[in-house]
Specification:
The chain is an alpha/beta fold and 369 residues long. The protein has 12 helices and 14 strands. The strands form 2 sheets. Strands 1, 4, 5, 8, 9, 10, 11, 12, 13 and 14 form a 10-stranded mixed beta sheet that branches. Helix 2 links the parallel strand 4 and strand 5. Helix 1 crosses helix 10. The N and C termini lie far apart (43 Å).
């Protein structure tokens, strides 16, 4: 066995896509330095927990990607399409749903997000009920036709699974088909209390995520995600993660690896929140072939916009596992990409591979000219 390989991934030469993501893509409306409640203008971006991963792998890391999603066919949906085209993903698997004129039967999702500053934390208010993607059924996509083309990696997660009763079934159908064709399946638990609140709360979140976990090769999340979504406790850690001691997280990961023998890689981000503008940031990962690896700890990291940092970690980790091989290098690339993504506005990464490579290797923020 190649000791440098944390995960066996299909060769790119045998596949049409390196990455396919399944999830909702929304418009993000950002009031900049102000508040949603007093805003008079917004900057507009696209974003979505699952989409951001594929877009990062395409735009930062240069891999071939596609998004599976659904949108209402109106001007707002076409604006989302325009963003996605700029993101470089294949849109062949976007389902366009006829719009009824006012959004009574189908609509597109909006996400109002404040970045936060200092003592004022970031705030997200989503407006995504009855969206096109939440009404998708498992049979809306010919999964076998997609994965038989050759796909190296499928990514989805707990945000998509929480959108409706049917979305978890869609995720299951996609994950089953992916595994049948030898595609690696990654899943970001991404627990959002607001999404589960009116459909059964944390109990329903655990029921859904535990069911889907059986199809996962690479499980990703932070401490709250593993606790809320899968029921694994992280002992001795306070709410703000003031001490990024990894021993408790390693114990939790060991428990998850024992319970789910299908997990080949488990990764978690560590964020200590001193303020909205300054976080401690690190990550740890584990693979069955190599054991544990820890990224560099970035103390007192300055944050411009924290939203999407975890998604950018996931895309950097996936790149490392697909293109480099070792769990140590993968977790360093993931943590570095997440750190860089939080220096710019919007959900999606504006980093380059050269910047990620430099930061992962210990480079500084000295001027480049």
């Amino acid at each position: 066995m190649d000791t440098r390989t944390a995960l066996k991934v299909k060769p790119a030469s045998e596949c049409d896509f390196d990455i396919v993501s399944l999830g909702e893509v929304m418009l993000r409306l950002d009031p900049g330095d102000g508040r949603v409640r007093t805003a008079r203008q917004f900057s507009v971006y696209e974003g979505g927990g699952e989409y951001n991963v594929a877009r990062g792998l395409r735009r930062c890391f240069g891999l071939r990607g596609a998004i599976v999603t659904a949108l209402a066919d109106n001007e707002v949906g076409r604006l989302v399409e325009d963003f996605m085209l700029a993101g470089g993903l294949d849109l062949s698997y976007v389902k366009w749903v006829k719009y009824d004129g006012i959004g009574r039967t189908v609509r597109n999702g909006l996400n109002f997000t404040e970045r936060g500053f200092g003592a004022r934390g970031a705030v997200g208010v989503s407006d995504r009920g009855n969206t096109a993607i939440s009404q998708m059924k498992p049979t809306d996509v010919d999964w076998d036709a997609l994965f038989s083309r050759g796909v190296r990696w499928l990514h989805t997660g707990g945000i998509f699974a929480a959108l409706s009763e049917s979305s978890a079934d869609v995720a299951e159908a996609a994950m089953k088909s992916a595994r049948k064709y030898g595609t690696i399946v990654s899943y970001d638990l991404n627990y959002r209390p607001s999404l589960w609140e009116n459909i059964g709360g944390i109990e329903r979140a655990r029921e859904v995520n535990k069911k889907l976990a059986q199809y996962v090769d690479v499980m990703i999340g932070n401490e709250e995600d593993f606790t809320a979504s899968l029921g694994f406790e992280v002992e001795g850690v306070d709410e703000n993660l003031t001490d990024l001691d990894t021993s408790s997280f390693k114990s939790m990961i060991n428990n998850a690896a024992q319970e789910y023998s299908n997990f080949q890689v488990i990764a978690t981000t560590l964020r200590g929140v001193a303020s909205a503008s300054r976080n401690d940031w690190a990550a740890i990962a584990w693979s069955r072939t190599e054991g544990f690896a820890e990224s560099k700890q970035r103390k007192d990291l300055e944050i411009f916009d924290r939203v999407g940092g975890g998604d950018s970690f996931a895309s950097g980790l996936a790149y490392g596992l697909m293109e480099i091989g070792t769990i140590q290098e993968a977790v360093e690339y993931g943590a570095a990409h997440g750190a860089l993504a939080m220096t710019t506005p919007g959900d999606t990464s504006m980093a380059t591979l050269a910047e990620v490579r430099k930061l992962a290797g210990g480079g500084s923020a000295r001027v480049v000219r």
